[in-house]
From TrEMBL:
InterPro entries assigned: Bact_metal-bind_prot9, Lipoprotein_PsaA-like, ZnuA-like
Signal peptide: 1-19
A Pfam family annotated for this UniProt entry: ZnuA
Localization annotation: Cell envelope
Domain of life: Bacteria
Name under which the protein is recorded: Zinc ABC transporter substrate-binding protein
Family statement: Belongs to the bacterial solute-binding protein 9 family.
Organism placement in taxonomy: Bacteria, Bacillati, Actinomycetota, Actinomycetes, Mycobacteriales
Amino acid sequence: MKSRFALKFAGLALGVATAATLTACGSGSDDSGKPEVVASTNVWGDIASVIAGSDATVTALITDPAADPHSHETSAVESAKISDADLIVYNGGGYDEFIEKAIEGRDKRTVDAFAARTSTSDENEHLWYDVTTVATVADRIAAALGEVDADHAAGYTERAADFKARLSGISAITGKVAAEHPGTPVLQTEPLAHYLLLAAGARDRTPAEFQEAIEQETDPAPAAVAATRDLLTGKQVRALVYNVQTQDKITRDLRDIAEKNGVAVVEVTETLPEGVDYIQWQTKNAEALASALR
């Protein structure tokens, strides 16, 4: 579905410019003696920043919500930043392939979230919605920074432990939904909140043909679209999980149908919204889903 990525592609140039600005602003840390961390996106950058505290500097390369990590090309400034980094934190699994290309053949210290995922049998790449994997990533960031900066290793470990304690609040919300409303049927415009739905015990009833087309960035066949609409008109699902960052005519129509039929719409995003941190963001997502599935 090429059109659904129009919003992302429109902002790609701005995302590169934003990343360059962030890098320039952080260039003073080169002489600070602090470890330098580069994260592929603002999601992983926010998590790394919590662990780093004031003992290390963190730069996120993609901060623009319209930019698409799948198609991002590193600028010369970004490449230099990656080259100089003491630690690189990225999603992996092909999601932010520009990082994998940039570090190929180099001896770099990295934390790859996809490699740290809870279940290696699950190939969904949107790992920031999986708080158990995020907890593992936090530990790996703390350990890696401790290796680079032994004097502050205890601080990195303590901040990771505090961060994981706060993650447990998100798990408590989804765990309660899973216990009280197991198997509640839902529909997604794309498989973005896959791990959130798993944690909540929800059953994703999105037709395989529709989901396959979304993942392959092609237009779903009319029959697949019709089957997806039927789930909403027939009120066979409790909620529509809706990615507001990749809207097109098909997804907007699905939202309209959901609202007309009294099906709750749960808005999700792919990147960290402005003005909130990772914990606040995922807590809000979990609460919204819980409210829809009750």
